[in-house]
Amino acid sequence: MKDLISEAVGGRVVACNDEFFAEAHNLLQVSDPVWKEGAYTDRGKWMDGWETRRRREPGHDWCVVALGIPGVVRTVTVDTSHFTGNYPESFSLEACGTGDEDRLASATWEELIPTTALAGDSVATFDVLDSHRVTHLRLNIYPDGGVARLRVEGDPIPMMSQVCPDGGGTDLASSLVGGEATDASDFHYSPPSNMLRPTEPAGMWDGWETKRRRGPGHDWATFRLGLPGVIESVEVDTRFFRGNSPGWVSIHLSDDGSTWNEVVTRAEVKPDAVNPVHLEHPRHGGHLRLDIHPDGGVARLRVRGRPDGEGAGRLRLLYLNSLFDEEARRFFATACASRAWVDEMTTGRPYPDVESLFTKASTVFETLSEADWMDAFAGHPRIGERGDRVADREQSGTAGADESVLAELSKVNLAYERAHGFTYIVFATGKTAEEMLSDARSRLGNETEEEIANAAREQRAITETRLRRMLCVGEAP
């Protein structure tokens, strides 16, 4: 399990109703809470945590936190250290998976931990059995008081751009995609897992540093990549390590973590810098070993490359199966706007594999009524219109088209709608504006019943292509 919420991995407070005595962001500090005898602010006793004022009216206090690493929550720790006469009587924890904070106000919150009693100056850990992907948590305290730290651990579930981004590679080792440190020669000052944090380094403490080596040899750390794949380059980030960075690094790769092949031999690295380390040729790997010569500190390690399709598809299916229903409906609606189809696909989860998902999609399409198809067609912009991100990608053939062709396409679109009562639907991927114009003209004079069937066929092709892209599984076999 991994830390999903601390400030070290990008966790942050979105909102809270009160933080009169102590600010809510203290909840997310990595360090253990401390007590400062005799320390006061102009608001009262200085406390290392989140503390609200004494409530004099009905209700309770709350704090909304964005996870730095969205995922499935497995354990929650509520730490009330040093809060003795000012801790809450109880707490509860709610979650949502919206991701988009513009939708937080209307998000549906699901209970992860029901109202549970708390003790003062104590550390309590709770198991969570809910298997949904969480992006935000709401900590409720009853009725008021102070909490020193909120710790949340679980399994990362990355979003699409972190698994199969458009253009370029991704960080195959990041904790965002499940990368983890498996071993190291030295843990004296800090663990090697710090190097995989998705945040920028904050200081010399926020990395991996070994003790000074007095004998022969060198230090090393091994990692299991969250996404095995073809590695193109590595970044060895030594920021904040000025008089204690390594002099050189070597890189070894392995598919299974047992047999290592050296792909970079003693590349020089500079202190307090982001050092790109290029491989002579792209190489495949599932595990990586970083050798530092002879010792020292590294803030971050980034492994840039292209993930294997199998691993990317597995993570994307995990993502889909773990979404709350609200987010799952939004996912499927991106592929097809028919509410009947979306509902059936949502309730069909979890899907054991990609093939099962596409079988289900095809089966549900066979059951759609004419009204359901019209619902699907209504989700498309007219061919040539811009502004819909997904449609713009598919209609790239119209981006550089001649204005006269676009104007004629617009006229034919309107004529088609008057004739048949719905938007002209065509599988636009790979087609030029001229080809789509010719197709629209040829279909304009068809009977509406025939055109519903034609549009449904095009819609099915569009939906499959969108699902394959969203699941990172490539073209249909």
Please provide a written account of the structure:
The longest helix is centred in the last third of the chain and has 23 residues, at 448-470. This protein is an alpha+beta fold and 477 residues long. Helix 6 crosses helix 10 (448-470). Strands 1, 2, 6, 7, 8, 9, 10 and 12 form an 8-stranded antiparallel beta sheet that branches. The protein has helices at 160-163, 309-322, 325-335, 339-347, 354-367, 370-377, 389-394, 403-420, 433-444, 448-470; strands at residues 2-3, 12-16, 40-41, 44-45, 50-51, 61-79, 90-96, 110-117, 123-127, 133-142, 146-147, 149-156, 170-171, 180-184, 208-209, 219-237, 248-254, 261-268, 274-293, 297-298, 300-307. It contains 10 helices and 21 strands. A hairpin with a 2-residue loop joins strand 3 (40-41) and strand 4 (44-45). The chain has 3 domains: 2-155, Jelly Rolls (Sandwich); 161-308, Sandwich (Jelly Rolls), CATH 2.60.120.260; 312-470, UraD-like (Orthogonal Bundle), CATH 1.10.3330. It starts with a strand and ends in a 7-residue tail after the last helix.
Annotate the secondary structure layout:
Elements: E1 2-3, E2 12-16, E3 40-41, E4 44-45, E5 50-51, E6 61-79, E7 90-96, E8 110-117, E9 123-127, E10 133-142, E11 146-147, E12 149-156, H1 160-163, E13 170-171, E14 180-184, E15 208-209, E16 219-237, E17 248-254, E18 261-268, E19 274-293, E20 297-298, E21 300-307, H2 309-322, H3 325-335, H4 339-347, H5 354-367, H6 370-377, H7 389-394, H8 403-420, H9 433-444, H10 448-470
Antiparallel strand pairs: 1-12, 2-6, 3-4, 5-11, 6-9, 6-10, 6-12, 7-8, 7-10, 13-21, 14-16, 15-20, 16-19, 16-21, 17-18, 17-19
